[in-house]
Amino acid sequence: EKWIHFVCVCLPLAYSIWMITEENINPYGSGCYGASSPLGCQADPDLVCERGSDRINLAMLIVGLGQIIIYFVIPPCSMLALYLFLGQSKKRSQSSKGMRKIIEAARKK
């Protein structure tokens, strides 16, 4: 679990540092966002991009996929593994006569 928290902190931090060093944080609508400046310079061949790199879409894709994996893949997989582990340990404890005696003795107290 500590590694998941580590990645959740370090991934956005590394992404934001990269965005700042590549000068990709630029005005976009009513705030700042990862975009080239002036807005729309990548789509218009006559307009020269003053700031921002061409790799911004790739970086956003990598970070987006990383967040999807962190939020939607790792927690369900962890819960499934925990469910299967507890199911196996319950079967093992029920099949053991000695363990059954210990459990019954603990319930009587």
In a few lines, what is going on in this structure?
By secondary structure, the protein is mainly α.
What are the low-pLDDT stretches, counting only 5+ consecutive residues below 50?
Answer: none
Q: Give a short account of the largest sheet.
A: 2 strands, antiparallel
What is the H/E order?
Answer: HEEHH
Ends distance: 36 Å
| Strand order, sheet with most strands | 1-2
The global form is: rod-shaped
Rg is 26 Å
Content of β-strand: 5-15%
Number of helices: 3
* Average pLDDT reading: 81
Structural class, from secondary structure content? mainly alpha
Task: Determine the fraction of residues in helical runs and give it as a percent range.
Answer: 55-70%
Number of strands: 2
How would you describe this structure in keywords?
rod-shaped, mainly alpha, 109 residues, two-stranded antiparallel ribbon, 3 helices, 66% helix
